[in-house]
Design goal:
This protein has 18 helices and 13 strands. It is of the alpha/beta class. It folds into 3 domains: 187 residues, P-loop containing nucleotide triphosphate hydrolases (Rossmann fold), CATH 3.40.50.300; 158 residues, 3-Layer(aba) Sandwich (Rossmann fold), CATH 3.40.50.300; 122 residues, hef helicase domain (phosphoenolpyruvate carboxylase, domain 3, Up-down Bundle). Helix 16 links the parallel strand 10 and strand 11. The radius of gyration is 25 Å and the shape is globular.
């Protein structure tokens, strides 16, 4: 095995491989600890066992699939196997021909699912199916479709699921394990005995900022409007329990379905819910993001109201609370006042670059407008070369093409940039170089996303993880939620491992 590979696997990678070669395995490893090496080792093993077979490696995006292809090419002898990337840009007939001669296929699930639906080829000679970012393998996703075809068609089956975090809800993790026919779960954390020697120290800091008193008046106006709509929803029996983003979105879905079945009494409820959701978003921007972002959102609502896009928007814009909040916001912007996190972030990065001129830093933020504002602010310092790293354009929202995304990463790797201001696209899988510090502009409640973001630093060299928190806002709630969910995740993985072990023992007993 190791004589074939161009780099040496680590001890924990060997241990996980030894499990995966005999079992369908879900591998849970922090970002940056080498999940792809395990996939590579298993691919070599399966090709030795079944020389005429194919390997299918699925990743959720084309850049990720491309990255895995490059990794395999770099770490395998040149003539080991014919490897190709499948994309929708290649003509279907051509893909059908390439499939016949390719031994290791790298693709997005959408591409393979479409080809299988169109019966361009089948998966009967695929001896290994690798699912990257396996936490996405839930119902109604193309991953699931390909897995079902594989389980029905392949003669020599082996499945490998890879993820940094499968989530904190036991039903969803159980569902992933069931979809992939998982019989073993291999989990490691940064603190696992066999992983720790390979990673560097990661210094954690939580930087708290005070929610400014001058923001409070805007907050009170928006909260008054929000509470009025929520109280009406409760009075009419549409809503019970807490009103947060998830409960309101679920309520909106439920009421919309009632309207589709001609229950027009629910229309008022839909309008109230839409108003509550929009004002909740405005409160989130005010508490955790930037005033310029809130202003952009207000301007969007005003424009939509002029165009009579919806009654909900018109009701918001006509309200005295919105009018007054807009006026107060304009006054703050005229004085060049913005969220205190911007200044705190700027100071952190200026200090980091002053201490280490070669430092590379990633700043994560939730919204595209926020990362643009951050990059603009940071570039005021001539020693900082910051650029945004965001997803592709969606409808009226501008974005970066995959080619532009690749260029930004290349520039960052080569040192032409020293700060990457990224949205969630920077979290998953992509081959972003080692960084000295990862900074969260805001905490996120998701354990999956927190683990992925944090994994960008302290691999080969010591690193910092810094989270900015606005006191007495949803920032604090989200910070504690993600930590609690991460702890819960490892508990449910332990439970699920036990469940699977008992199931395996029962199956062996029945077979006897």
């Amino acid at each position: 095995m190791e004589e074939i590979l161009n780099s040496s696997p680590r001890d924990y990678q060997k241990a996980i491989f030894n499990t995966a070669k005999d079992n369908n395995t879900l591998v849970i490893l922090p970002t940056g600890t080498g999940k792809t090496m395990i996939a590579l080792m298993l691919s070599v093993h399966r090709k030795k066992l079944y020389p005429q077979s194919k390997i299918l490696f699925l990743a959720p995006t084309r850049p990720l699939a491309e990255q895995h292809l490059e990794y395999f090419k770099k770490n395998l002898p040149e003539l080991f196997a014919e490897m190709n990337l499948f994309t929708g840009a290649i003509d279907a007939e051509k893909r059908q021909k390439i499939w016949q001669t390719t031994e290791i296929v790298f693709s997005t699930p959408q591409c393979i699912a479409n080809d299988l639906d169109n019966k361009l080829y089948n998966l009967n000679d695929v001896s290994l199916l690798i699912i990257d970012e396996a936490h996405r393998c839930l119902k109604n996703y193309d991953y699931t479709k390909v897995v079902e075809h594989y389980k029905n068609q392949s003669c020599n089956q082996r499945i490998l699921g890879l993820t940094a975090s499968p989530g904190h809800e036991i039903e969803k993790v159980r569902q992933i394990a069931n979809h992939l026919d998982i019989s073993e779960i291999e989990v490691r954390t940064r603190d696992s005995e066999d992983v720790r020697p390979y990673l560097q120290e990661r210094d954690f800091q939580k930087i708290e900022v005070v929610f400014p008193p001058e923001f409070m008046e805007i907050h009170s106006l928006l909260k008054k409007y929000f509470d009025a709509k929520v109280n009406l929803l409760k009075e009419k029996g549409y809503l019970t329990g807490p009103a947060n983003k998830i409960t309101l979105l679920n309520l909106q879905k439920r009421l919309s379905m009632q309207i589709s079945t001609r229950n027009f009494a629910a229309m008022h409820g839909v309008s109230l819910t839409a108003q509550a959701i929009k004002i909740s978003h405005a409160l989130e921007l005010l508490e955790t993001q930037t005033l310029s972002g809130l202003n952009d959102y207000f301007q969007t609502l005003i424009q939509q109201s002029k165009e009579k896009k919806s009654r909900a928007v018109q009701a918001i814009v006509k309200s005295p609370e919105f009018t007054m909040a807009s006026l107060l916001l304009s006054r703050l912007l005229e004085k060049n006042i913005d969220h205190p996190k911007l200044d705190a972030l700027s100071k952190l990065i200026n200090d980091e670059i002053a201490t280490n001129p070669n430092a590379k830093i990633i700043v994560f933020a939730q919204f595209r407008e926020t990362v643009s504002t951050i990059a603009e602010k940071l570039n005021e310092n001539p020693k900082i070369k910051a650029k945004i790293f965001i997803g592709q354009a969606k409808k009226s929202i501008s974005g970066l093409s995959q080619k532009e995304q690749k260029q930004v990463i290349d520039d960052f790797r080569e040192g032409k940039l020293n700060v990457l201001c990224a949205t969630s696209i920077g979290e998953e899988g992509l081959d972003i170089p080692e960084v000295n510090a990862v900074i969260f502009y805001e905490p996120i409640p998701s354990a999956i996303r927190k683990i992925q973001r944090a994994g960008r630093t302290a691999r080969m060299q010591p690193g910092k993880l810094i989270i900015l928190v606005t006191k007495n806002t949803r920032d604090e709630i989200h910070h504690y939620a993600s930590s609690a969910r991460e702890r819960k995740m490892y508990k449910i993985i332990k439970l699920l491992k036990e469940e699977i072990k008992n199931k395996n023992n029962l199956n062996r007993y029945i077979q006897k």
